[in-house]
Amino acid sequence: MKSPLTIIILALLMGCTAVKKESNMFTISKIQQEKDGQTLFLKDNDNKVYTTIISIPNGNFIKVNEGDNIRIKIKEILDTDPPIIVSKHIEILD
Questions:
Q1: In Å, how far are 5, 10, 44, 70 from 26, measured between CA atoms?
Q2: CA torsion sign, 46 to 51 to 57 to 61?
Q3: Most confident of the ranges 6-10, 21-25, 31-35
Q4: Domain tally, the chain
Q5: Which domain holds residue 39?
Q6: I need a labelling partner for 35 at 20 to 30 A (CA). Which of 1, 5, 55, 69 fits?
């Protein structure tokens, strides 16, 4: 029989995995042109707003439009307002 602490830890780990998996799909709500790239304003399925920067120097630039649905491979999320997603790769979904 597993201890209550083990059960709680397993539940937290499973919950975090599900949130991370779902949180990599976004809709672009606004695009702001920057000096050497663009800032994308994103909304997830819960309408939470995030931003990410795409640029050639960052190695993650792709041609996108407002309203596009995208999937992001997330390197990290910076705790700002709104949170900034540091991305490894961005893919436009059909």
A1: 34, 27, 5, 5
A2: positive
A3: 31-35
A4: 1
A5: 25-92
A6: 69
